Amino acid sequence: MSAQFQIHKDTIDQVSQRADIVDIVSERVVLRKSGANFRGACPFHNGTNATALTVNPARQMYHCFNCGAAGGAVKFLMEIDKRSFSDVVLDLAKRYNVPIATVEPEKAKEIQRQISHRDRLYEVMALTTSFYQHALYAHQGKAALAYLSEKRQMSKDTIQKFQLGYAPAGWETLMGYLVQQKQIPVSLVEEAGLIVPRKTGNGFYDRFRDRLMVPIHDTRGRVIAFGGRSLGDEEPKYLNSPETELFSKGSILFAMDKARDAIAKADQAIVVEGYFDAIALHQAGIEQAIATMGVALNADQMKQLLRYTETKNVILNFDADKAGITAAEKAIAGFKELVFNGTVQLRVLTMPDGKDADEYLKQRSAAAYRDLLKNAPLFLDWMIEKILDGQDLNQASNLQKSSQEIVQLLKKLTVDANFREKYISSSAQLLSQGKSYTSLQLIEESLRKQLSNNDRWNNTKPIQITTTANTLYSAEIQLLQIYLHYPEYRACVYESMEEEDISFSFSNHRYLWHTILELIEQKKTSLATQEPYPNHLVRQLQIFCAEQDEVAHQLQHLLWLDENSRIGILRPQMVIRTAIATIQYVMCEKREKYWLEMFTTKDVIADPEFGYHCQAKIQEEKRRKMEFQKLIGVNYLDLSGTGTNTSEKNVIEF
Ligand SMILES: [Zn+2]
């Protein structure tokens, strides 16, 4: 709908008064009450913070602490749907029954007509849905109903919930109903994608004939298209509605309207390939499932899903025949950026014995499927496993080939160095097949070297365990995250900091630490291993942040532990030691620089005593640096295992 007119100020004012910001935002974002406000994940940036977006009902405003997005209901809809101001206002006016006035009164009629046109398309789809539903239970729908209840084992409730139906076999059955009985103009039925013009002569015929009909709903639960499955041998087996004013298959996810709440609750979305897989999962009580519309998932759809899960956890359910590397790469092609930069925690679920989800549920159980879900590996782990699958790594050429493939894969990662480092180490472990420590080290070195060659090729920095500002920053973050999210290690962090006389280098970290120390002093938190209630400290800090806009966005990322961070902190004690060593290393480096500067700028020939002193200091810092470097390196190696195959005795104490 394009609006080429000016809406009257009265209409805009009334819309602004009636449209409730909480209603509008909660249709797109899962909101939780938090004091007088509501909070949720911000849909305007790819953050992992589940409480970045605040919605204030009193002021009728939303605001994101991370990206700064802010405004009222109209702005929210404009930004999220990329629509114009007048489109949004008109839509809201219609929804809240606000009469539309334009600056030029004669245009009002035209606008009303455009709005009612969309409404009438929805109405045609709704009429058609009940027509198909009705036909399913009539004599002609007998075979279709039997197929659903027997072959697909669908309950009456499920058939009802998904509004499944049957398109009768005649050429003009639906058309007769809509056009003759319901007096709908032929042009509108055609526009809705339900009839097709005859190739010869005049007239139209029904697009869907003798098919099982699956309505496709938008997120507000309105039918916008159909998928039709043939019951006999007719091709194609699945026939979808064409793209219409209401339906664009690249932006719709099947069953999203029914899965939304479950996705938020389970903090996970399952993506399956077929409607019937999604329906079967819902029937089995696994309601966080959605299906793609016969095309691979794209970035827009993925972002839609990510809005509803806090930990950005999405599981791709592959059919066994598609579970190869090439098929997997194809399946993620539309959103691979989001995978490799860590925005989505993508997991892969492959069905055993060549089954799809529907078959699996029938032959096994919902509980068995839930087990598969629980054990679904991260995409990268799965890919590495696939690369190594069936390879005889005792043969040098195989080892070479596999390690090259792994390098190609890791090269794509754009997440931070620590994350990649973890994969280098775990891949090296797999490649060395637990042979000897030396071969593990050699392979790891070789992977790192190949990757850094690639990096130079890509003109980015090689990965090394060095203490750049970046690793220092990560180390500080890890210490704070452990302190915030692992109460049992609080004393350990606190004491290590005190003992080694360590302070944070980055001002936001310093600020947070200072705030924590103040809370301890005020007895609002303590070093006790148990908190009065879960996330006690984090919540206090969140409230604190909510009140100080200017610091909030610098601290929010610490208050929420995403999957990458969780993986990074599998063994908190080791992480604390590594982080402390990293910070100490940097402190040594600073001191070394200081003495070097002294040595070069002061006249040491005039004061040889001072020159020797400087030299001694420089040497001392160099020596300490090497010690810390060793600790950092050792711990990295040790941390690289996922914790399952690294036994405690390998931990080097210091
Ligand atoms: Zn944001």
Walk me through what this model shows.
The chain has 654 residues and is an alpha+beta fold. The protein folds into 5 domains: 9-103, DNA Primase, Chain A, CATH 3.90.580.10; 113-240, DNA primase, catalytic core, N-terminal domain (DNA primase DNAg catalytic core, N-terminal domain); 256-376, Dna Topoisomerase Vi A Subunit, Chain: A, domain 2, CATH 3.40.1360; 385-457, no CATH class; 469-640. It is built from 28 helices and 15 strands. The strands form 4 sheets. The chain has a 5-stranded antiparallel beta sheet. α19 crosses α20. It is globular and about 110 Å long. The structure holds zinc ion. The site of zinc ion has 8 residues, from loops.
Q: Give the low-pLDDT segments.
A: 456-467, 636-654
Count of all domains: 5
Distance between the termini: 69 Å
Tell me which ligands are bound: zinc ion
E-strand count: 15
Alpha-carbon Rg, integer: 30 Å
Major sheet description = 5 strands, antiparallel
Spatially, the strands of the biggest sheet line up as: 1-2-3-4-5
Sheet-strand content, in percent, reads 5-15%
Nearest-integer average pLDDT: 83
Class by alpha and beta content: alpha+beta
Envelope shape: globular
Oligomer: single chain
Helical stretch count? 28
Helix-residue proportion: 40-55%
